[in-house]
Amino acid sequence: MGKSDDLKGQRAELVIDAKNKLVMPGLIDTHTHLAQALIRGCADDVSLVDWLKKYVWVLQGNFTKEDGRVSADLCMAEMIRTGTTSFIECMIHTRYGFDGIAKRVEEVGMRGALSKIIMDSTGYADSDDIMYPGMVEETDASLRETDEMYHKWHGKADGRIQVWYGLRSLGAVTPALFRDVARRTREKRTRMTMHLGEVIDDVRYVRENFGTNLTTFARDHDLLGPDMVFAHGIHFEDEEFQVLAESRSNISHCPASNMKLASGFAKVPQMLQAGVPVSLGCDGGPSNNTYDMVREMRLAALIHKSYFNDPLVVTAEQAIEMATLGGAVAMGIDDRVGSLEQGKLADVILINLHELGLTPHTNPVSNLVYSGNGEYVDTVIVNGRVLMQNKRLLTLNEEEVMRKAREHSAALMNRAGIDNLPKWPVR
């Protein structure tokens, strides 16, 4: 990579015609659930607790390792097709098959941080003992598995794979385990992630049990720092943003999921103004219901203008930065990816501007964020390897991925006893 004049005359293994293409860094999804691609649309238009207890946890609690691999393939295929090159998978349950998923990430060619679920209780925020039995993990076994997967996969696949700790939400992790995982994270020099401030119940939980707010709770349990990615962060108060900024703790903003589940609106403009590192995440198949980061950029740039009655907050440029360099910061790889600079790795996407919805090309940045979607992505390159060209996936068989997903989804629904028939007669 370099200036055009410096590159003229050099030989290349592959030449891509980028005429009428927007060339930009690959998109980075900092909060995703690979396993939830297989249960897309399983629980729409229901309240959050019912969404978890009656549908999502029940289905995920009946997964097999083969389901985990099939869902990972489906999720990665959609991510690549829509321009995502790197992602943070926030919580891999033992039953999903961590080893098999890591192997698929290696083979498919994406860049991924894979976080192993860690827990020692069965609550959710201020609700006690509500977790589906199939989703419960034994703490010591989970910690051992994380160690094994770390030694086997962390830094492998030319550095594309990281192994993180994926702490369950408040109510499912005791204070002692929070501190233990933070210690283990820093000893291994890896990273950790957890949902925090997604629901107002989180605020009540820390207030009633610890007499404090979310960031003070996080500080007291060694959870603040640049090696932490907090997903959602909706219910932080204004005075907490300075603490997050000073500790360089990352927030993964998930606007589609937050709106669909009526969780609330994160105060992203205030976070950005305070200097909090903010990135974007699509979340999962039942809560978004896509893995399209271009759509997520659009929402991130639009919803705050309306919520704060200010058209100047969260610009198109800021949305793109959150989806690229902001994601690289969250993953700790901003020295290697996240921007098109000489010396960085070739994580690059090309977006076709020769589309009705992107014409005219007055301002390609504005067009991408406000007019675009992931279907306009033409080419995806990760670590110098082409994963998609001319809209054709090269490391996954798209038809085979969809066929297996349909088969495994139907079997999973039947095994879990979930009736997901449409409310309207559509057959």
Gross morphology is globular
CATH fold name = TIM Barrel
Helix content: 25-40%
- Rg over CA atoms, rounded to whole Å, is 21 Å
* Terminal Cα span: 53 Å
Question: Which structural class do the helices and strands define?
Answer: alpha/beta
Query: Largest sheet, order of strands side by side?
Result: 2-3-4-5-6-7-8-9
Count of helical stretches: 16
The number of E-state strands comes to 13
- This entry's quaternary arrangement is single chain
Number of domains: 1
Write the CATH homologous superfamily: Metal-dependent hydrolases
Mean pLDDT across all residues, rounded? 95
Along the chain, the helix and strand elements come as HEEHHEHEHEHEHHEHEHHEHHHEHEEEH
Tell me the β content: 15-25%
Give the CATH class.
Answer: Alpha Beta
Major sheet:
8 strands, parallel
CATH architecture: Alpha-Beta Barrel
Low-confidence stretches: none
What would your notes on this structure say?
By secondary structure, this protein is an alpha/beta fold. It has a single domain, classed as TIM Barrel, CATH 3.20.20. Helices cover 40% and strands 16% of the residues. It has 16 helices and 13 strands. It has helices at residues 4-7, 48-60, 65-81, 98-108, 139-153, 175-188, 200-210, 214-220, 241-247, 255-260, 268-274, 293-307, 316-323, 325-331, 364-371, 398-416; strands spanning 21-25, 27-32, 84-92, 111-118, 161-167, 192-196, 228-232, 250-253, 278-280, 348-352, 377-382, 385-389, 392-393. Strands 2-3-4-5-6-7-8-9 form an 8-stranded parallel sheet, with helices on both faces. It has a 5-stranded antiparallel sheet with strand order 1-10-11-12-13, covered by helices on one side. Strand 11 and strand 12 (385-389) form a beta hairpin. Helix 3 packs across helix 16, helix 12 (293-307) packs across helix 13 and helix 13 (316-323) packs across helix 15 (364-371). It is globular and about 65 Å long. The mean pLDDT is 95.
